[in-house]
Write a structure and sequence with these properties.
Blueprint: E1 15-18, E2 23-26, E3 42-45, H1 55-75, H2 77-92, H3 99-103, H4 106-118
Antiparallel strand pairs: 1-2, 2-3
Helix pairs in contact: 1-2, 1-4
């Protein structure tokens, strides 16, 4: 199975980053030539990544999660309250970690995304390469 440290050719789709659960989903090399049963992706938790070569991916995922939360705060009142509270903590400078990322849980993001989708304020999308059986 693939990993975060393997560098794919430029522009090749090898997997995706789950911003809600903060994990990378990496498909095995040549997944398009494998049977569906054999093309099982490798799920890599991003919080447990200590490898310096994957630090840019982890940082990009954290920024993406922060952006997701920010966009949800624009359309969901409950997330807006959570986001503003976290932003106030960030301005106060309580610690080294980002309050937006540490104080807003996965469950709160999922609930906000569900409410926003049901109220037709957002439309979640996923990427993939259907002809290659990836995504």
């Amino acid at each position: 199975a693939g990993s975060l440290t393997e560098s794919p050719p430029h522009g090749e789709f090898i997997g995706l980053i789950d911003l809600i659960h903060m994990r990378a989903i990496v498909y095995p090399p040549n997944a398009e030539s494998l049977r569906m049963e054999d093309a099982v992706p490798n799920v890599i938790p991003l919080q447990q990544q200590n490898d310096p070569s994957s630090s840019s991916i982890v940082e990009a995922a954290m920024e993406g999660r922060r952006e997701l939360i920010s966009h949800l705060a624009e359309v969901d009142d409950i997330m807006e309250d959570l986001y503003l509270h976290a932003m106030m903590e960030e301005e106060e400078g309580n610690g080294d970690s980002c309050p937006v990322l540490t104080n807003i849980s996965t469950e709160e993001i999922q609930s906000s995304l569900r409410r926003s989708t049901l109220s037709r304020r957002v439309m979640p999308t996923l990427c993939g390469a259907a002809l290659r059986g990836v995504g």
